[in-house]
Structures are given as C-alpha cells and as structure tokens.
C-alpha cells in the first residue's frame, strides 16, 4: 500500500491577481479586435488599412487643411466682393452688401440682373448694326452747283441703218423672196445688215463668223453720215455749228452712232482693245475725273468734257435733224422712224438698246436734265466692298475697261459669256484683235446667251440677299446719272420755213428737233457716310451702360483697381489678398 505524499505549493495572491488580469485583458483584446477592427492613435480611430499604410493619416490631414483653406479663401472673396459693392459707383450694387433682409437683397439682385440683361441686349443690337450696316446713304448738307459736273454726253443713233443709195435692203429681200438671183456682194451686205435690222434676217445664208476688218469697212460705207441727217447744232450759243465738228462716230449695239462730250476711247478702254479707224476719237485731253471732278482748269470755256454752267432753255445743246425721206428703209426699221438718244456720263459706254428716248420725225423734243450724283466719304473706303456695297473707280479690275462702272461691268460680263458659249463676240462688244465676230448664223446662240443671262440673274437675285449683285457688278461709289424729263410736240417746221423764207420747204426731207438743257441751277447730292464710326459706336455703347447701370470709365477703373492694385497692396500691408476682416 502506497503512501500518498501531499505537497503544498504556496503561490502569492499578487501573482494570481496579475495572471487573471492578463487573461481577462487578452480575452477582451481578442473580442474587441474581432468586433470592431479599429485602433486608436492619439485620439483618432485608425482602420486596419490605416495601420498597414502609414501615409494615409498625413493625406487625410492635408485634405482637411485644403478644405479649411478653401473655406477661408471663399469667405475672404465674399468679404472682398462686399467691400467692392460698398465702394463702387455702379448703381444698385451697394444694396447687395448691406446687412438687410434676404428679400430686399433678392429684389435688388433681380433689378440689377434685368438692367444688365437689357443693356446687353441693346448693345448687341447696336454692335450688329455696326458690323452689318456701317454705311448710310443720306443727302448732302448743301446743294452742288452745275459747274461741278460736266454736261451729259449725248449719243444719237439713227434708226435708219443703211443708205438706200449704197444698199437697198428691201429690194434685195424682195428679190430673194421672188427667188431671183442676187450677187455675192449683196449677199454679204445682207448678212452684215441682218445683225442690226429688225426683219429679213432669215433670207440670207447663215455665217457663223465674219471677217472683222471687212465687216467694219462695209458698215462704215453703208452708214448715214451725221452731216447728212443734221441741219445744224448749237451749244450754249445761238449760232449754228456743224454737227460733224461736235460729234464723233462710235460703234454701239445700234450700229454706227454719234456721240458728243464723251471721253476718248483711250480713257475708257484698256490698251489691248481693238478699235476701228478713227471711231470714238475726241483728240482732247480731259480736265475731268469722276472721282476728283474738274482739275487744271485755266479757261472755263475750254474745259473738256464741256460744262453748261447755267440752267434753262438756251443754255444747252440743240440739234436739228434733217434726213432725206428716200433713205428710209422700212424693211430694216421698226414701226417708228427717227433717232434713239441716250444721255450718260462722259466716262460711261452707253447701250442704246437698254436706255434711250426717241425723237421722231416731225416732233420737237425738249429734254430737261436733272443730274443725280452719288459721292462716298473716304472713311468708307476702309470697309470691304461687300459691306459698303459699291466699288471705287479703280478698285475692281475689268479686262476691257479702265474705269469701273456698273454698265461697263455688265457689258464685260455679257461679252465673256458670249465668247464662252458661242466662241465669238458681237460686233459692238469690246474685243482684242484676234477675237472673231459672231455672224448671222450665231443668232440663236446669242439669243440663248441673252435669255440665260436674264434667267440666271433673276434666279440669283431671288435666291440671294438684297445686297448681292449678278456678275458682282455693284454700284459705283462715285457716280453721275442724268434723269431726263422730256416733252414733245408737233414741230410745224413747214409753216416756219414758209414764214421765214417765203418759200415752201423741200418736201423730200424729214425734220425733227432736240433740245437738251439742265432743269435747275443746282442739284442735291447723295453721300455714303459711316453710320457708326468707332467714336459713334463707343458713344452709343457708353450711353447704354450709363443709362442702365450708371457705368462710366471710372467704374471700369474701379474694377481694374480692385482686381489688381488693391490686391497687391493688401499683400504688402496684411500678407493676405483680401485685406483685414474689419
């Protein structure tokens, strides 16, 4: 039997207490970690991720610092804006800064917003008008005298295209209708005349092009000489002068015509344009320019183009027409017999089939002229032609003309289209030496070009804005037109001749008279000027700002001051851009 040995181990109470405390602490630590995995460091909870990343704490602190700084600057900006509102001279802003009720500040905010919006609306409208319509046409402040402009150029075209004594157009047409033989020369004359006669063209063989030299020679031979269909001319004086000394022959769309007071061909056409013999030659140096007016005038009665100086009957041009009745060819004529007359500026090439008035045999026609002049200020020259809607004389280059005019531009456009589509030009169009002349065989092509140009022009005008122009033929910035008020009455020349000369007039001649004179001693000029120059626009701009907001130049200076100088000074004085709180 074994004896049990009892061993007594004595453990101090303090030690047991320590072990229990450690065990409890370990259990509590384990439970706390499993329930809420956070730690406390310096009074701030840290997650496991924070414990693993030691830089997250500093990032979080930086973010908080940035937020505080942003809030500080925002409050400073509010305070700075309040300070501006309290001191600015712009109306209404001080009420936004006052320590008043929210309702009052909202009302003033709405009033200021509406005022600024209305001001902006009207400023935009003025700016749009300044950009789109900077030029205005108005009347001059005073009337211009007659001596400032030339007497109108007068171009006369007889409706009789050929002398019967040279070529009887009616007889030849009748021979062809009766199937009689005609000579080759008659066939050629008939082909040439079919370009200017109104009937009988279909009876002659078609020819696509003509020999230019021979064509002009034959037309020159068939023409009526001005000495053969005039009985005398008067200009400014009562004495009759030979019309041949005053008028020069010129080839136009109505065949051979005669012109008075027109510039020489070298002053109108480019040097490369072909001319026939001595046609359209004045042999006088011009003292007048459409842009500058009369210059280098030493003798008022020797200026060219001529000037009337005075208005009224007796201070103009009078032409007495006299033509043998036997020269009338009714096959080539229209229903009326007489002369087509055009009044135009001396530097403009007229087109008689576009604008003219008629002087019939047996009539006395008086044409009272009222000039209409357009000037343009040099201030307008800086604008683009599309903006001012006009060209100065030497601004737009024309191939055939030295000076730009709308009629010259349209004729050149017509010439270019005809040359492109028909490979030739009409006899009256400007051309160089090698360009062929369209014959009677090209009549359909020419009619087609005329029709297409009209259709294109109508479509172009209808589809585009009102300030666009076909062929880019804008009006001239400086221009003269002559408005004509003409009256006509029966001229009893037979009774007059019998009373003065005590013998009857020769019944084989037909008579007519044309008198041209200025209606008034002066005329009113139109001018293109700036509608809104820079000064006008600035005045309107500032006026609207002052009306709606009380804004002025000093108000702008205040804004610049608060955005620049005051901020810099605040930095120097208080080390902060917003300045002190109080």
TrEMBL record:
Gene Ontology cellular-component terms listed: plasma membrane
Main location: membrane
Keyword Transmembrane: yes
Parts of the chain that traverse the membrane: 106-128, 537-563
Presence of the UniProt keyword Mitochondrion in the record: no
Superkingdom: Eukaryota
GO MF annotation, one: ligand-gated sodium channel activity
InterPro entries assigned: ENaC (IPR001873), ENaC_CS (IPR020903)
Keywords: Ion channel, Ion transport, Membrane, Sodium, Sodium channel, Sodium transport, Transmembrane, Transmembrane helix, Transport
Cleavable signal peptide: none
Any Pfam family hit: ASC
Locations listed in the record: Membrane
Membrane topology field: Multi-pass membrane protein
Family: Belongs to the amiloride-sensitive sodium channel (TC 1.A.6) family.
Name listed for the protein in its UniProt record: Uncharacterized protein
Source organism per UniProt: Acanthoscelides obtectus
């Amino acid at each position: 039997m074994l004896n049990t040995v009892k061993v007594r181990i004595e453990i101090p109470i303090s030690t047991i207490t320590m072990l229990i405390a450690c065990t409890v602490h370990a259990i509590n630590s384990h439970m706390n970690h499993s329930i809420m995995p956070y730690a406390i460091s310096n009074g701030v909870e840290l997650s496991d991720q924070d414990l693993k990343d030691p830089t997250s704490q500093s990032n979080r602190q930086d973010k908080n610092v940035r937020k505080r700084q942003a809030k500080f600057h925002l409050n400073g900006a509010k305070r700075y804006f309040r300070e501006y509102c309290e001191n600015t001279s712009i109306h209404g802003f001080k009420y936004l800064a006052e320590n008043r009720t929210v309702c009052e500040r909202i009302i003033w905010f709405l009033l200021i917003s509406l005022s600024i919006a209305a001001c902006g609306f009207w400023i935009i409208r003025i700016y749009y008008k300044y950009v789109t319509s900077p030029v205005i046409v108005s009347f001059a402040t005073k009337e211009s005298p007659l001596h400032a402009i030339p007497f109108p150029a007068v171009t006369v075209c007889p409706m009789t295209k050929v002398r019967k004594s040279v070529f009887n157009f009616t007889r030849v047409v009748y021979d062809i209708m009766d199937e009689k033989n005609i000579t080759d020369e008659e066939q050629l004359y008939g082909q040439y005349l079919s370009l200017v006669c109104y009937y009988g063209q279909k009876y002659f063989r078609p020819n696509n092009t003509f020999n230019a030299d021979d064509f002009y020679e034959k037309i020159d031979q068939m023409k009526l000489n001005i000495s053969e269909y005039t009985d005398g001319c008067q200009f400014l004086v009562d004495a009759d002068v030979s019309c041949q000394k005053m008028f020069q022959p010129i080839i136009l769309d109505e065949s051979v015509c005669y012109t008075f007071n027109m510039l020489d061909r070298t002053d109108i056409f480019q040097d490369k344009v072909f001319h026939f013999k001595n046609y359209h030659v004045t042999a006088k140096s011009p003292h007048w320019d459409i842009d500058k007016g009369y210059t280098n005038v030493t003798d008022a009665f020797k200026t060219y183009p001529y000037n009337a100086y005075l208005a009224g009957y007796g201070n103009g041009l009078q032409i007495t027409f006299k033509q043998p009745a036997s020269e009338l060819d009714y096959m080539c004529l229209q229903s009326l017999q007489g002369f087509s007359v055009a009044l135009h500026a001396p530097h403009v090439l007229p087109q008689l089939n576009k604008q003219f008035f008629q002087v019939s045999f047996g009539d006395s026609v008086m044409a009272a002229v009222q000039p209409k002049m357009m000037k343009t200020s040099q201030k307008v020259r800086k604008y683009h032609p599309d903006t001012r809607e006009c060209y100065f004389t030497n601004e737009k280059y024309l191939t055939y003309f030295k000076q730009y005019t709308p009629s010259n531009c349209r004729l050149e456009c017509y010439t270019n289209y005809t040359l492109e589509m028909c490979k030739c030009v009409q006899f009256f169009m400007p051309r160089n030496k090698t360009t062929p002349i369209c014959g009677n065989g090209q009549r359909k092509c020419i009619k087609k070009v005329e029709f297409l140009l009209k259709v294109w022009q109508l479509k172009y005008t209808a589809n585009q804005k009102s300030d666009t122009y076909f062929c880019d033929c804008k009006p001239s910035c400086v221009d003269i037109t002559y408005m004509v008020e003409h009256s006509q009455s029966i001229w009893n020349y037979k009774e007059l001749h019998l009373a003065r000369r005590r013998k009857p007039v020769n019944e084989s001649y037909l008579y007519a008279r044309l008198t041209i004179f200025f209606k008034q001693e002066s005329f009113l000029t139109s001018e293109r000027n700036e509608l809104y120059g820079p000064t006008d626009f600035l005045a309107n701009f500032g006026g609207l700002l002052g009306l709606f907001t009380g804004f002025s130049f000093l108000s702008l200076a205040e804004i610049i001051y608060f955005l620049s100088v005051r901020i810099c000074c605040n930095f120097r004085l208080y080390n902060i851009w917003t300045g002190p709180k109080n």
